[in-house]
Specification:
It contains eight helices and no strands. The chain is mainly alpha-helical.
């Protein structure tokens, strides 16, 4: 009788590869086994992959993973939105960060203070405080 890995097991493997500086897609054998023979990849696995890419400054690649997630009819979670917003803030892209912030609010999710701080810090650097004032004003309506 063999062991069948579940999503948590695969999530731990993804996290291990991420910590070693690798992307799970860099290991084709495991990635394809996971994709075609493993359990359904859920929010946890996508969140780990998106987080890893954002931490390495590969925000555009992270957005591709988000598209795969959406193609599988999985709506982004609060965690996924936060990762993308902070990733875009760290890469200096206020427009994209605000895009995901707006999407997050439309989906009925409330951003944590860390996300709001990242937006405020980037706006302060970019002299776009008026935009962030709109963000904070919108919080009053939540």
């Amino acid at each position: 009788m063999g062991f069948s890995p579940d999503e948590i097991t695969y999530g731990l493997l993804i996290d291990g590869y991420n910590r070693e500086g690798h992307n799970i897609q860099d290991t084709p054998k495991l990635y394809y086994k996971m994709k075609f023979n493993g359990p359904s990849i859920g929010h946890m696995a996508y969140s780990l992959m998106i987080g890893d890419l954002c931490r390495r400054g590969k925000v555009k690649e992270a957005e591709k993973i988000l598209k795969v997630c959406r193609d599988k009819l999985l709506s982004p979670t609060k965690s996924i939105y936060n990762i993308l917003i902070i990733g875009h803030c760290e890469s200096g892209n206020i427009e994209k960060a605000l895009y995901y912030y707006d999407e997050m609010i439309r989906d009925g999710l409330t951003p944590p203070s860390r996300t709001l701080r990242a937006l405020a810090e980037l706006a302060n650097k970019d002299n776009t405080l008026l935009i962030v004032n709109e963000v904070f004003d919108s919080l009053a309506n939540i």
